[in-house]
TrEMBL record:
Signal peptide residue numbers: 1-27
Protein name per Swiss-Prot or TrEMBL: Uncharacterized protein
UniProt xrefs under InterPro entries: Peptidase_S1_PA (IPR009003), Peptidase_S1_PA_chymotrypsin (IPR043504)
Keyword annotations from UniProtKB, A to Z: Signal
Amino acid sequence: MRQQAILRVVVGSASLCLGGWSEAAWAGGPAQGPVGVLAEPASGAARPRTLDDALLEVEREVPGFGGMYHDEKGRLVVRLVNATAAPAARRAIASVFGAERIPQAGVVTQPATRTFSQLKALQERLTPDVLALPGTVFTDVDEKSNRVAIGVEKAEARAIVERAIARLAVARDAVDIVEWGPINPTNVQSGWTPVGGGLQIETPGKYCTLGFPALQGGTLGFVSNSHCTQVQGGVESTPAYQAVAPWLVGTETTDPGYASGGSCPAGRICRSSDSAFFRGEAAIATYVVQTPGAFDLNISAWPEVTGKVLYPSQGQTVFKTGRTTGTTSGTIQWACATVNSGGTPHTFYCNYIATSATQNGAGGDSGSPVFFLNGNGVTLTGLMWGAGASPWNFGFSPLGGVQAELGVVPYCQGGVGC
């Protein structure tokens, strides 16, 4: 792999966004603001099949199914109204998700008060009103608690959320309100060829991260965040350079518009992912870079992309590599949540939030590939778009939503799609 010479000093102030970074913003630490919310696809686009859709399929096969998550021992925990349905639930999960979803650590059950469909209907009822309120961050079906969770930035927001719950005549014991700092949109910084996931890219006025190489029909390119383009939503043929101009490596060709109305909260615009596709203008490989750890930006490995998971589950640990914080990890605390993007009008449907005891994201990490480590390489599962600090977390769009909105598949080991 040949490293390019970087002749221009990277200075100045690029705007802070999931993919962008500014010296001023970083000097004071990560900015505070809500994470982006999952939104429905633009008008006319088919809604992608999500994790929640798959869980509803399991419930149709096993009435009384209340959801599932992974615990700290790596076991799959299945919530059931009736514990005698455990064997049927295991068969249904394998049928809907694939046998590989059953971990080696095994499957255990926990009692459920409400079924997953009851909780999903409750979340959908609450979301349009609640996420239109100031200071709210997300809504999610929380399989761990068997309730719906509502994230608020500060304790002061609890009162207005409580009033909304009462107005909607929702059972109060079915809802948890949790304090959750805002998640703001969030660049390894040398030049490399061929390009791969996790490397710094520059777009006009911003430093971001190249997400992952991808195929769109017969066109080879890569994916990064929509907010890393010149206009979030819509195509302006934004150029992407690696690591800095003038080394052009991609041109934006697909970036669906955001839609309002329907289940999109009042005053906001929605999509399923913060993603855009760039046609390749340089050699593109099938790797995602890794660094030794947080804030160590030296590349330690170039693992190949060997597979994908469209929608990961609550409790699983995922990794990401970004141009600012390097390779970090987080445990998925909120899965397939509807999430507001801090300081912007954008909301995302069925997005994810992964937490850590230490900082795992920052400005410039926008567009980072989110993946699982496996013995042969990495398994892609999403695209990071935001980071927060209360607690430390990063927000990401699941690969299923990215694929559906952009019409792409990851470019995988062997030079084929996966």
